[in-house]
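Dear support,

Our group has been running a series of protein-ligand predictions, and this particular one with S-adenosylmethionine is the one our PI (initials K.S.) wants archived with full inputs and outputs. We had some confusion internally about which version of the output was final, so please treat the block below as the authoritative record. The input we submitted was:
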Amino acid sequence: MLIDTFGRVATDLRVSLTDRCNLRCTYCMPEEGLQWLAKPDLLTDDEIVRLIRIAVTQLGITEVRFTGGEPLLRPGLVGIVERCAALEPRPQMSLTTNGIGLKRTAQALKAAGLDRVNVSLDTLRPDVFKTLTRRDRHRDVLEGMAAAREAGLTPVKVNSVLMPGLNDDEAPDLLAWAVENDYELRFIEQMPLDAQHGWKRDGMITAGDILQSLRTRFTLTEEGQEERGSAPAERWIVDGGPHTVGVIASVTRPFCAACDRTRLTADGQVRTCLFATEETDLRAALRSDGEDGEDGSDETIARIWKQAMWGKKAGSGLDDPSFLQPSRPMSAIGG
Ligand code: SAM
Ligand code: SF4
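Confirmed final output from the archive:
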């Protein structure tokens, strides 16, 4: 098992498949100038599948989420999903995507064994979408979501980040739209993971703000803590049900004590937390020829991963005055 000194057990693995993206969301990437990871540093499809196999068969991982950057940009994605679906025990598999290209790939991903998708969409207004993401692709995202629903990649969850002065008035509209289209909406508080290091706590839209705004139009009833489990979204039943809305309040109501995650970057580094400033290199072990004493065996890799988990910190440190934003932006960590 992947266990840390606080007794938390990681069963949920986030795998970043690329640091590249076809959008440039302001809270994640700069408009230009971000250095991409070098091709030889990226894990190959075989290496990714091997690490997932080790995680599933030796380390107790039961859930795998593919992310990025934009994971649909990875050419081998369908093959990776297919090979992971054949693992014993078979992990639950989902994908976090901006939805562009999903129209084309949703059916193939479902056939390969993907269980569901999370699609990110922050606004219903094409002009605001263009400002937020610096690209004019709103329609592609909506079409991608509909294709995912039709392909049975359900429930389709929608991730929305609200930004002051841009889309912070849209929470009720987004919820009405999600209910109508049978999508499960979750708002994510903006976190200090932008490439520009421009995040300010004072200006951010908090979970409290979001709930207050939603309550102007909907009756929200809090779901019990039991239903929440270790899921980071606190959920509310909308107008008596059956639809729900979630809020992931990583900044104002952190859930670190119940965290069950471990993360793998596209260049083969294990991160124990989104906000970790240290990483553990699995790629070196994977590619080791034995000369440095690491034999590159499954057992060695599992041992290094367990050691990394053992060093997991109690919390994100966001509230600590000495908090340091990680040097990698969200797009290169894997959100
Ligand atoms: N490109 C895919 C997408 O946008 O869904 C997957 C990667 S993206 C980094 C994963 C999620 O992180 C998205 O839902 C995005 O909105 C969210 N995200 C990115 N930067 C964030 C930030 N600074 N604070 C909160 N959420 C952020
Ligand atoms: Fe790309 Fe996702 Fe980051 Fe937006 S949030 S820039 S879609 S990786």
